[in-house]
Amino acid sequence: MTKKLCGTNYPVSICFIVVNEFCERFSYYGMKAVLTLYFLTYLHWDKDLSTAIYHAFSSLCYFTPILGALIADSWLGKFKTIVYLSIVYVIGHVVKSVGAIPLVGDSNMHIALSMVGLILIAFGTGGIKPCVAAFGGDQFDEEDISERQKFFSIFYMSINAGSLLSTVITPMLRADVQCFGGDCYALAFGVPAALMIVALVVFISGSGMYKRSPPQGNILLEVCNCIGFAIKNRWRRSKDEAERKHWLDWAEEKYSKRLIQEIKMVLRVLVLYIPLPMFWALFDQQGSRWTLQAIGMNMSFGESFVIKPDQMQMLNALLILVFVPIFDLIIYPLVALCGINVTPLRKMAAGMIFAALAFGAATLVELNVIKTVVSPAPAGKCLLQVFNLAEGDVTLQFPSGTPFPQPIPYLQDPPNYVTIPLEAPSKEMLITVRHNGDSSVCTQTFKQEEAYSLILYRQTTGIQCKLVPDNIQKSGDGNPILRFLNTQPEAINVTVADETFHAISGYSMTPNKTVPYGEYHDVSCSMNSGKCSGLDLGLLEFGAVYTVILMEELDLIKPYKMVDVKANSINIAWQIPQYVLITMGEVMFSITGLEFSYSQAPANMKSVLQAGWLLTVAFGNIIVLIVAEGAGLEQWKEFVLFAGLLLGVFIIFSIMAYFYTYVDPEEVEKVYLEDSGKEENDDDNKKEKTTDMQLKKRVKSTRL
């Protein structure tokens, strides 16, 4: 007998299943939250490749549930499938975490371990996806219908709770804990690995209490076989044979009419699924393109609260918990009161509109974000800014003209980079420098598509020039980038947060280093002469690239902060509207879509539609992969493209929905049973009539 929780009809076993699902979803979403930044900053891939691999992984996670369902229904059963594939899941997490340790091998080893880990995770999470919820439902007795419905609500809450907490916590583990000299991705992946181990242990702990159903054959496989037989049979038959009402009717020689009729019902719904991947193409970009957009924004809310770019994804899980009751209890009833028939397909179509609007909002944000980005120089040109460290204004004359028409003031922050035409991959230029009535010439070599700083300083022999290459790319995690220019005849060491800058003597520039966002009013500084103590760098803002010039004034070293690349000026709060819109779209599209699919399918075909629904998510991620790697568009243009494509799909889906006729599978079942009963009665009547005729014939022959 199934053990029940005290005073309820809930089996004790569901506690283990709910905790298992919470830990597994924490594990999955926690790892996935930091995945794009891991590709970008740890593996040093570009944004397009990072996006493509992210969505390739997401796609694989939604192809593998079909494999899990086949294994569970045809071979191992749900319990063993969950256990065995959870072990694969754990191994994948461990391999992924090891790949994030810099001391383990080289960059190729890190990539190999990461890819193997992700493939194993995809097989694990996808394989158990169709089993866990169904296994939980199996624990209830047939009469406990209301308890089973409440269980699925609790199950859904555990999914969102795990997602919400993990997308808050794992970005903190990544950024706030430093290990191996940088962001601690090993810990950010290690904690989800530990949670998956907990999930497996908890699930196995309840093994003695579970009600297990043996594998009874896979209906999905039977459906595929029936469809295949119908096509094959029609192809083999003579064209002279009478056509049948439906192409599936060619399977009647091997399969029952009932199965064929049920497949017809399912196919009508699957046809409606064809446009749906485009919604998921937009929805799943929260973890890729929207996270990359957040990197280019100001992530501070006031002076004390700072959010991580990969933490914004938690808004979706949070808003889902808020919006579901609001839509069910307020919005849908109000719309119905207005006389509008709120059908499931209309809700789904409206969800597409909201998702397109979300990408419209994301486009507006992106257009403002890119204003702080320095565009690379095109072929045949380079970028140049000038630091004037000579007392007094200077003017520059280039062979091609005067790119700096105004005199350059002493120690003034250059306003913008200036484009210098080269008309060759590399070019040596004679630059005439005029200062206080004197002129001098310096020779520098420039390369195309590069950015430079030209440092002008005075010595006894006149004005000297020094050309240094610049970094115009913002950091991968949104934090500021810093470097120091030492004008002193002795070396200076400066420590900012955990980063130490060693500036050798003689107008030398340190390498660029990323430092945490924040106020720096007493930075550690040391040199042999003791002239340098605490430096006041002020606020180092998100996304900015700084050059700090160390000058001597009154026997002390004073820093002059120059901005090479502007700070992120758009606050990350401007992403909230697009998250609100996409979540509203999810409530209307995703939840309604699942309800619609289940309501339109016969009881034994619901797993087939579940597989079809998951495949729409997989194909949606493939669309993003193709666009990210193939289109080569700027991010804001991609957003416009996706919004436009979804609006086009909305029109197609609306037309398809208009011609769709809703059915009640239970009523169809009743009609089928009645028809079957009539056929049996007709057969009995025919048999009786045949017997009567035979008897009459026998009597007649006897009389004769």
Topology at a glance:
Layout: H1 13-33, H2 35-42, H3 47-76, H4 78-99, H5 107-138, H6 145-176, E1 178-179, E2 182-183, H7 185-205, H8 219-236, H9 257-273, H10 277-283, H11 289-295, E3 300-301, E4 305-306, H12 314-337, H13 344-369, E5 381-388, E6 394-397, E7 418-421, E8 426-435, E9 438-447, E10 451-459, E11 462-469, E12 481-486, E13 492-496, E14 499-503, E15 508-509, E16 513-514, E17 518-520, E18 523-526, E19 534-535, E20 538-540, E21 545-553, E22 556-565, H14 576-599, H15 606-630, H16 635-658, H17 665-703
Parallel strand pairs: 5-10, 12-21
Antiparallel strand pairs: 1-2, 3-4, 5-7, 6-8, 8-9, 10-11, 12-15, 12-16, 13-14, 13-18, 17-20, 18-19, 21-22
Helix pairs in contact: 1-5, 1-6, 1-7, 2-3, 3-4, 3-5, 3-15, 4-5, 4-7, 6-7, 6-12, 9-15, 10-15, 10-16, 12-14, 13-14, 13-16, 14-15
Describe the structure.
This protein is α+β, with helices and mostly antiparallel strands and 704 residues long. The protein folds into five domains: 1-217, Growth Hormone, Chain: A (Up-down Bundle); 226-257, no CATH class; 270-373 and 568-665, Growth Hormone, Chain: A (Up-down Bundle), CATH 1.20.1250; 375-473, Sandwich (Immunoglobulin-like), CATH 2.60.40; 479-565, Immunoglobulin-like (Sandwich), CATH 2.60.40. The protein is built from 17 helices and 22 strands. It has helices spanning 13-33, 35-42, 47-76, 78-99, 107-138, 145-176, 185-205, 219-236, 257-273, 277-283, 289-295, 314-337, 344-369, 576-599, 606-630, 635-658, 665-703, and strands spanning 178-179, 182-183, 300-301, 305-306, 381-388, 394-397, 418-421, 426-435, 438-447, 451-459, 462-469, 481-486, 492-496, 499-503, 508-509, 513-514, 518-520, 523-526, 534-535, 538-540, 545-553, 556-565. Strands 12, 15, 16, 21 and 22 form a five-stranded mixed sheet that branches. The chain has a four-stranded mixed sheet with strand order 7-5-10-11, with no helix packed on it. A hairpin with a 7-residue loop joins strand 18 and strand 19 (534-535). The longest helix is centred in the last third of the chain and has 39 residues, at 665-703. 42% of the residues are buried. Residues 682-704 have low confidence and may be disordered.
